[in-house]
Amino acid sequence: MRRFFILLTLILLFSTCGDREEIIPNVRFHVRLPLDDPQYSSESTFIVYRDPSGNRAGINGVVVYRLTNDTYYAFDLMCPNEKQNHCLVKIKDDVTCECPCCGSQFLIAVPYGDKISGPSPWPLKGYSTEVTDGGAILYIWN
Fold this sequence. Notes:
Layout: H1 2-17, E1 30-34, H2 38-41, E2 45-48, E3 62-66, E4 72-76, E5 90-93, E6 96-98, E7 105-107, E8 115-117, E9 126-132, E10 137-141
Antiparallel strand pairs: 1-10, 2-3, 3-4, 4-9, 5-6, 6-7, 7-8, 9-10
């Protein structure tokens, strides 16, 4: 009987260890964008793959939404439902993105990249942002 309980405990212990799956992999990065560059200052929504120094942004790029001159929201382009390099969300209009593979739509004009419609059960993966140097530099990092 004791062996049964030990075996059952081991089965339960090892069967739950692999249940945690990250929706979007956690990739460390840090990009610095000069906000006086027209590439980043002319539109309220833009995509960044690399910063001027060549540092990669996110997994396959980041979509950035400017709410105010001091408030930016940044999200990974990888669709949390598809998780494929060829299924990167595209800017649909100034405040939404859409996955070309599954059709999920996400609101990027809010801090959490909320899903609006489609099969994705998750929002977009968000990243931290900060405007520094008197509004001249936007930092995005994870």
